[in-house]
Amino acid sequence: MKGKWQRVGVMGAALAFSQSTLAEYAYNLQTPASQVAQDVFQLHNLIMLVCLGIFVVVFGAMFYSLLKHRKSVGHQAAHFHENTTVEVIWTVIPFVILMGMAYPAAKVVIDMKDTTNPDMTIKITGYQWKWGYDYLNDDISFYSNLATPREQIQGTAEKGEHYLLEVDEPMVVPVGKRVRLLITANDVLHAWWVPALGAKQDAIPGFIRDSWFKADKIGTYRGQCVELCGKDHGFMPIVVEVVSEEDYAAWVAKKKGSAQAAAADNAKTFAIADLVERGEKVYQANCAACHQADGKGLPGVFPAISGSAVATGPIAAHIDIVMNGKPGTAMAAFAGQLSDADIAAVVTYQRNAWDNKMGDLAQPAEIAAARGGAASEAAAPAAQ
Amino acid sequence: MSDAAHAHDDHGHGHPTGIMRWLTTTNHKDIGSLYLWFALIMLFVAGTMALLIRAELFQPGLQLTNPDFFNQLTTMHGLIMIFGVIMPAFSGFANWQVPLMLGAPDMAFPRMNNWAFWILPVAAFLLMVSFWLPGGAVAGGWTMYPPLFIQGGISYDLTILAVHIMGLSSIMGSINIITTILNMRAPGLTLMKMPLFVWTWLITAYLLIATMPVLAGAVTMLLTDRNFGTHFFNAAGGGDPVMFQHIFWFFAHPEVYILILPAFGIVSQVIPTFARKPLFGYASMVYATASIAILSFIVWAHHMFTVGMPAAAQLFFMFSTMLIAVPTGVKVFNWVATMWKGSMTFETPMLFAIAFVCLFTIGGFSGLVLAIAPVDIQLHDTYYVVAHFHYVLVSGALFSIFAGIYYWLPKWTGHMYNETLGKWHFWLSVIGMNIVFFPMHFLGLAGMPRRIPDYALQFTEFNQIATVGAFIFGFSQLIFLVVVLKTIKGGARASDQVWEGAQGLEWTLPSPAPYHTFETAPVVK
After folding, report:
1. Who has greater pLDDT, B8 or B245?
2. Which of A138, A282, B111, B129 has its CA 20 to 30 A from that of B31?
3. Closest to B378 (Cβ–Cβ): which among A29, A154, A159?
4. How far are the Cα atoms of A146, A177, B456 from residue A162, in angstroms, in the given order?
5. Is A305 on the interface with B (CB under 8 A)?
6. Is A75 in Cβ contact with B336 (below 8 Å)?
7. Beta partners for residue A240, in sequence order
8. A125 shares its domain with A253
9. What's chain A's average pLDDT?
10. Are residues A223 and A294 in the same domain?
């Protein structure tokens, strides 16, 4: 075991050296921060070495032949062909080499698939286009959105160090704990990947698949969605903060506190100006990717809200489409994603922004009623 | 084999002229040319899309496209390059060369041959017109994965229709090729004497007939899910989105070999010619081709290692995929052994064939890396995969097509191409191609996902290098266009033999090959 770690150290040092001398150019997998990522790193190096060896031998022979066996140097063509012994030899040798590769690879496969005995379990849900995290042991839930400002993407502002790889709410886990991930999706396929942790799993709507990691080092690890999921596929990053056990406990306490504050909001009655102000933020985070900041949508792809029949019609139908979505389209059901106060706020905002001058509002209590109001009531608006 | 007798058939008798000649033609040479022109036009269409993609990716941020249009470009680039360039180009070669190499007067079903080609432009129109429809072209990736594919607009239905039409075209073409090869060989030309190009196409045609209906089934289920309320791929209705992937890749992995086996065939004709030495292991090449084709049916889920399969399934698909390296290795060794102690010259076809052997093998090595399931899980859906399949499809399939065109164009037109321009085309292509695609390995290893219009700052340098390479590669294809046009118009007269070391029935014909050939079958001893 110790020898293995020494080898890892040497390799890591070599990698760090090559990275420091070559600034931005990275030539290998990211520096591993978990045992699985480490195993994959070594497996990849091993296979690359074997491939390199074969390449040198085979193409050494070919390029020698290209130089020596050419007509311009007067080489006469030999006429040998068909030799069963040779054919058998170059069938068997690659086969043996492959067996040598398959054995260590199989061990890693079996290790990666073993999700038993976790210290904690986190359910991860992919949405168009953000990630949702549910900590099943600590009863914490939140969404994680891209934090890079639009201006940086459009090129009107200087790009930050973690451009496109930064989120508003990172996933936080304690160091050295086996974290089991239950991964699913709400709408289309996504894939959750943090390279340094060696965990990648497709998120499939209607199915839950699991994966796991155990981070070895405290630090911030960044990844991205890696399954094409529509327009903003490139803009739903993943950030995992690996922290000490104490910091994790403090984070859990803080999250629980803010959850209580959010619950308290659901019981309040708001003035229309407060709802519009809050709703604008909710709109920017959840709606603007498709319907656009100006509410005009993208013609032919995403409908406008400004001047739309829904946002200028009966408020009950408006609340219904926000809460329950529109099946068969990219319009998600936000009932499970947003709080009562947030839904009330975003509906109020949409009815009073841009060309929409409805002047009416929805209170959190109305959302709670639509939410809790028995199955028959929930079904009624959908049937309209 | 006296061919002087055919000379008077140089022109059709009472056949339509102008556009009607091409619309109604049943001549294998005409149809072969149509396929090849179609492929060349589509190469420039889909190549332009590739340059737009690379231009957008020249630096971080969104400059030229919006994310939705970017996804349309990547999707259409993939669909057109596969179904509109590589496959039709190989069909063009099959139409021209299979009858000439077998000593047959034409294809077995000339009228079906005409249909097989002429429905292709219809499919291309359906695909392309969607750029101007509400919502734009299809943007769900060439793999068409649901549920994303269910969300799209009218262009998604048009794409399904286009895929059906292209599948139909391929099936008709394949029936024709198989029937021709099995029934119309010249007396004495036994199966194990056939040129390797014919062998690889025979096996490819069987793969097409086996897998195109599978694709048709998959996209039909998409169509009914989209329009008729079925739930094949909708978990809420009892379906399974992953089932689509299984069905799709059961088609699309053999499809990968459909795109490369004819390339193996072309290269196996070119290398012995310019090495002036017979193919080292003809029989083992045939067996290796067949082995690859059979294995291609049991490896499909290696495209799906990240969907979450049981360990046993991952191991099975990992081992079966690694096995493909064995027959593929046999092929590479045989090509090298054919060159060994030959008397090589390096005309443009040979240069492209040598580049094929070398660069396709790099694609094979990255394929082996990707076959290792744990490594694949890290690299799946990253630029490493983009690098891998472009090494096998650009420096593999496309380079073999270039090799084939330079090799047979003198026979088809009766003129030698301009060797200097050919060499310029080769060197710019091979250098440009490596500048585009080699850095993508590093991007993938460093963690850059594919199909993204914008990227984090640490990926900038390699993306810039790749974009520069793409423009070198793209614009050097204009040289190819010039060479082809110049060769058709004129140039040095090609002899009947054309190449000193060429073997086979097509070289016994005059150059250019007359409109009708082998009306009397030659006898092969």
Report:
1. B245
2. B129
3. A29
4. 11, 26, 7
5. no
6. no
7. A171, A221
8. yes
9. 87
10. no
Over range A163-173, report the average pLDDT: 95
Mean pLDDT score of chain B? 94
Give the tens place of pLDDT for each residue, B402-441.
Answer: 999 999 999 999 999 999 999 999 999 999 999 999 999 9
| Residue A366: CATH number of its domain | 1.10.760.10
Mapping DSSP onto H, E and C, the string for A45-113 reads HHHHHHHHHHHHHHHHHHHHHHHHCEHHHCCCCCCCCCCHHHHHHHHHHHHHHHHHHHHHHHHHHHHHH
Dihedral (CA of B446, A56, B256, B48) sign = positive
The residue among A259, A275, A291 that closes a domain is A259
pLDDT for B213-232, tens place per residue? 999 999 999 999 999 999 99
Residue B294's pLDDT is 96
Q: Residue A289: pLDDT band by 50, 70, 90 thresholds?
A: confident
3-state secondary structure (DSSP) of residue B37:
helix
B268 is catalytic: yes
Residue of B361, B452, B499 to mutate when probing chain A, most A C-beta within 10 A: B452
**Domain assignment of residue A18, yes or no:** no
Q: Is B257 a catalytic residue?
A: yes
Question: What value of ipTM does the predicted structure carry?
Answer: 0.90
| A8 lies in some domain | no
User: Model confidence at B381, in pLDDT bands (50, 70, 90)?
Assistant: very high
Give how far B387 is from chain A: nearest CA, Å.
14
B345–A209 CB contact, under 8 Å: no
Catalytic residue among B6, B28, B29, B77: B77
**Least confident among A253-257, B1-5, B187-191, B334-338:** B1-5
Among A36, A165, A234, beta carbon nearest to B67:
A234
Q: What does the alpha-carbon distance between residue A137 and residue A141 come to, in Å, rounded to a whole number?
A: 11
Q: What total number of domains does chain A contain?
A: 3
Do A99 and A132 lie in one domain? The reply is: no
DSSP state of B85: I
**Residue A27 placed within a domain:** no
B142 is catalytic: yes
